[in-house]
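Residues and backbone
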Amino acid sequence: MVAHFEAARDRAHLVPERLPIFCVEEPDGAFYYGIPDLGSGCKVGRHHAGLTGEASEQSTMVGDEDIDDIRRFLARRLPSANGRVTASATCLYTNTPDFHFVIDRDPRHDNVIVASVCSGHGFKFASVVGEIVADWIGGAEPLFDLSMFSMSRLLGETR
């Protein structure tokens, strides 16, 4: 879930020249991120929060409890951004159970490579995963140990 918040006071503290893009992991493991006010309010979200299940079963409505969670974060960390909510949206994405990618050859078909950079953060790694897959297709073995990205880890198998 993400929301845009108007400045509660002194918008000058929330502009790109004063507020960088940020990621904060709280002591309890909650992970928040945001971007400065680019004209529609400071955008703040919480990663890996909310309901889980099939996409067709999820509501696209942002609940009061979601906004309240981000407001508590803002009260602790960025109170000047804790103003009126101007927009909000849910973020649906696919996760593996351990939140890691899948980069592997299909165990049944060696000519099939599966590259699923999901779990809400894959876009940041698209270039390196693309390079790994391109090299693999070209006949080069990966330069990295990809065991943590194997399909077998999800199926409880070992190779």
Helices lie at 64-77, 126-137, 152-155. The chain is about 20% helix and 20% strand.
